[in-house]
């Protein structure tokens, strides 16, 4: 084997690797300096994630341009060229996705910092997430199509595939009706603003927070850390509760069943004292009133508020617990009780009144 046949390809490969490493290092250095100089935007720091696909794209492009002159596997030049083309298409798609993701994440982060409305921020986050997934899917589909078109056999059958595209489209549409329905439902959720990432919802009697929204399914994280995966079409075809719609603030109630002698004015003062000690209370409402009565007890209701569903649950539990402890310690008579008295003995039993005593004094009739 000729020494030049081995040495030339090796030198070209080593040179390409050296150029790639130096270019990647310089790019990372520039991005780090730009990130330190422009702290108001995270774009430059996020673009550092593109180092690996950038190096792969650059190395593949350099090898593709030099593999013929370098005589890399000269007996298989066409195969090497096609392999490098496939890698170049895939790495370019990877790089474009990373760049688009960095730009979108940077734009969303700056928007979230400037916007005080949490509901609007969640809406934009939902829309951005779904748009990002659509763009990623489109880039992947185009990249796969471009890779397939590099094969002559695929170009030959392209005309027949296009001719039968109408029939295939109808069949695929019927077969994927459910999937397409979920796809359009996901777009409707994103731009219809019906449910957003971070919303508190109740679906199928399960309370939780929307954790993830994709084009086909939605993930709800329940209060006990379970994840419920549901098709997005559920939220466009069935009723559900969205506690964050129009604002995340929540109002909660706490009930006690107490004796009629319960000190209501003292309870109102104690409620205000308890609420001031609970950091989750937002200060909007804290009231107490009697809402019902029975022959033995009264129903006392406290109304409290918080910034979201999680905090209002914490406030309700704290108020319920601390009020019961206070009543038990200071006003035990206010707790529910059953008043009993000795029952009269049956007629004829020892100690029971006689007939004359039962009838009362003579002449009382």
Task: Provide a descriptive summary of the structure in words.
- The chain is α+β, with helices and mostly antiparallel strands.
- The chain has three domains: 3-114, no CATH class; 179-242, Roll (SH3 type barrels); 250-334, 2-Layer Sandwich (Alpha-Beta Plaits).
- 58% of the residues lie in helices and 15% in strands.
- The protein contains 13 helices and eight strands.
- The protein has helices spanning 3-37, 43-47, 51-70, 77-114, 118-149, 152-156, 158-163, 165-175, 177-192, 234-237, 264-277, 309-330, 355-359, and strands at residues 200-203, 206-213, 217-222, 227-231, 241-242, 250-258, 281-293, 298-306.
- A hairpin with a 4-residue loop joins strand 7 (281-293) and strand 8 (298-306).
- Helix 3 packs antiparallel against helix 4, helix 4 (77-114) runs antiparallel to helix 5 (118-149) and helix 11 packs across helix 12 (309-330).
- It starts with a helix and ends in a 6-residue tail after the last helix.
Shape: elongated
Which percent band covers the strand fraction? 15-25%
| Secondary structure tally: strands | 8
Order of helices and strands: HHHHHHHHHEEEEHEEHEEHH
Give the neighbour order of strands across the main sheet. 4-3-2-1-5
Count of folded domains:
3
What composes the largest sheet? Answer: 5 strands, antiparallel
Overall pLDDT score: 78
Radius of gyration: 37 Å
Instruction: Summarize the amount of helix as a percent range.
Output: 55-70%
Distance between the termini: 141 Å
Class from secondary-structure proportions: alpha+beta
- Count of DSSP H/I helices: 13
Low-confidence stretches: 356-365
